[in-house]
Design brief:
Distance between the termini: 39 Å
Radius of gyration: 13 Å
Number of strands: 11
Structural class: mainly beta
Shape: globular
Length: 127
């Protein structure tokens, strides 16, 4: 497993942008696929975006396509989630997750696909 720490959350007005970071440490984190999930109050944790170890396989939830961009820099063991055109419905705690089994992403990942999780970072979008 790897250890994950999210950062970059905060309060932003609708239409604004935030960039989340997920810093990984531990056992060869650059070989792991990473996903972002979010959980709003009273709702289940939902998939947002995922990227494999090389960055060549990427998958987005329909709700964020065209607005969010996932990327990674293996030199610093960090995965990013650039979030643009934020809306109040994007308000949630955002979690990053990692798993070495994430090689090629062809379907929507689920939480059970990942065995390492960060503590989450709050994103609040005001209207």
């Amino acid at each position: 497993q790897v250890q994950l720490v999210e950062s970059g959350g905060g309060l932003v007005q609708a239409g604004g942008s935030l960039r989340l970071s997920c810093a990984a440490s531990g056992r060869t984190p650059s070989t792991y696929g990473v996903g972002w999930f979010r959980q709003a109050p009273g709702k289940e944790r939902a998939f947002v975006a995922a990227i494999n170890w090389s960055g060549r396989s990427i998958y987005y939830a329909d709700s964020v396509k065209g607005r969010f961009t996932i990327s990674r820099d293996n030199a610093v063991n960090t995965v990013y989630l650039q979030m643009n055109s934020l809306q109040p419905e994007d308000t949630a705690v955002y979690y990053c997750a990692a798993d070495e089994r994430i090689v090629v992403i062809t379907t929507t990942p689920v939480a059970a696909d990942f065995d390492s999780w960060g503590q989450g970072t709050q994103v609040t979008v005001s209207s």
